[in-house]
Amino acid sequence: MKTLKKLGIWMDHSNANLIEFSDEVKPTRTILADFDNRDMEETLQRSENEMHNKQQHKQGAYYKDLAAEIRNFNEVLLFGPTSAKAALLNFLRKDHRFADIKIELHNADKMTDKQQHAFVRDHFKRFEIKTL
Question: Distances from the Cα of 126 to the Cαs of 34, 98, 130, in angstroms?
């Protein structure tokens, strides 16, 4: 029987915490978006259009970094307080390599690291088949 690799990602537009679901405790890995308020202010002073283009480019790089991680898993839970998770899902759906990966979205508030781990554990535990 093949073991499914499962990943939870709490994310917003600025960072993503990757939480691998497994029998052993693994540390949270974080991927940061490379567009911050300082970038926005600097480019906005020159042009709103330039700011939007720079933000789109850097957001695309952020989603590519996340996609590279997601490719290694069979099931993925995207959760968090913003629309970033839906934007990432739309980004992934454009690529046929993600067609066989089960990806679910859930709204969630800001959470501590422990709350994020518990959310991922509880989500995936619900779907495990228990054998006696």
Answer: 35, 23, 10
Contact predicate 120/21, CB 8 Å: yes
Across-strand partners of 103?
76
What 3 state SS string does 67-112 have?
HHHHCCCCEEEEEECCCHHHHHHHHHHCCHHHCCCEEEEEECCCCC
Instruction: Give the pLDDT confidence of 47-77 residue by residue, as tens digits.
Output: 566 555 556 767 889 999 999 999 999 999 9
pTM of the predicted structure, to 2 decimals: 0.82
DSSP 30: E
Bridge partners, 9 (sequence order): 18, 78
